[in-house]
C-alpha cells in the first residue's frame, strides 16, 4: 500500500541541513511519499531459528516459548526472569531450575491493566502502566507481593502507551513517556519526555524533553552518561526520519516534533512563539548517531556481563522491532552499537535472519533485553511469544 501526503508550510528548506526561507508569508507545498509494508508473520519453527545469524562463537536458542506477547525483561539476583505483557497486563516469572539454558517454570505473578516497564532493586519490583507506577516485594519463591502505587496521573498514552522504567546510577527512577501522537504540540508537559523521580515516586520532574518515543535507554558503565534510542517521525518518507541515538542530558530538548536529526525541519509542525525552525534547532541537542529510518528501536542496554568477549564491554545492544512505514523493511534484528573512548561510533548487526523470503516474511519482532545471571543476553519477541538466549561459547 502506498500513500502520498502533501504538506503546506510557511518556511522553505533550501539546503539539506539548516537553510530556511526568509519570507515566511509565502506558502509553499512539499510532497512526501509514504509506504506501508508489513512482512507476513510465519511461525518461529526450530528450523527457522537455526537460520538466525550471529557472530562467530555465539549461539541463539529459545529460553522460553508459548508466551503471549512478551515485552520488557528484568532478571533478579537469583536468576529469576520477569517478563511483561501489556496486552494482558501481566508479569510472568520464568525459571530455569535445572540450569540447561531453558526456562522450565512459567507463572503469572502480577496483573494490572497496561503493565509494560519493569525494573528491580533491593528485592522489589517497580512496574509501570500507562498512567501509574507500582512497586511490589519479591517473595522468596519469586512471586510478587501486593502492588502498591507510588506515582499516578501520568499522561494518557495515545499513540505511544508503552512506558519503560529504569534505575540510574544516582539511585533515581527514570521513566520514559512517549508522545501521544506522531507529531503534534502536546497538551501535557510530561508527554514525549524522560521523567525522573525518587524510588518512592516523589520529586517527579521532566529530565529531558522533545523525545517522541525513547523506550530503550541505559547508562554507559564507565562514563555514567545516559543514552537512549528515539523513534523517528512516521510519514516523512522511506528514509526519513532516521532513528536517533541521543545522549540524554538534564534539561535537554531533543527537538520533537519541530526539528530532527541534525536540525532538519518538520514542515508539518511550526515551532512555538513565532520562532523559525532554524532558531528552534539552535536550542536543541542533536543525536550522537542515527540509524535507518523506521527500524523502530525498542530496548537498549550496555553490556555489563562477563560471558561475551572483552571488547563488548561498554558497547550497547539494541533491539529493532521492525518497520511498517517504508517499502523495503528495516529493523527486525538486534544490533550492537560500538563505543570507543565512551563515544558511539557505529552500528553493527548482532542477530539477523528474522526476515525471510526477500523481506516478505518475518518470524520475529524483537523487543526487550536483559542480562541473564550467566552473562548471556535474553531477548523477547512479541510476534511469536518467545524469549531467546544469546550466549557466547567460543574462545576469548
Automatic annotation (TrEMBL):
Protein name: PQQ-dependent sugar dehydrogenase
Origin: domain of life: Bacteria
Pfam family membership, one: TrAA12
InterPro entries (UniProt xref): 6-blade_b-propeller_TolB-like (IPR011042), Beta-prop_PDH (IPR054539), Quinoprot_gluc/sorb_DH_b-prop (IPR011041)
Gene source species: Pontibacter cellulosilyticus
Keyword Ribosomal protein: no
UniProt keywords, alphabetically: Signal
Keyword Signal: yes
Limits of the Pyrroloquinoline quinone-dependent pyranose dehydrogenase beta-propeller domain: 53-390
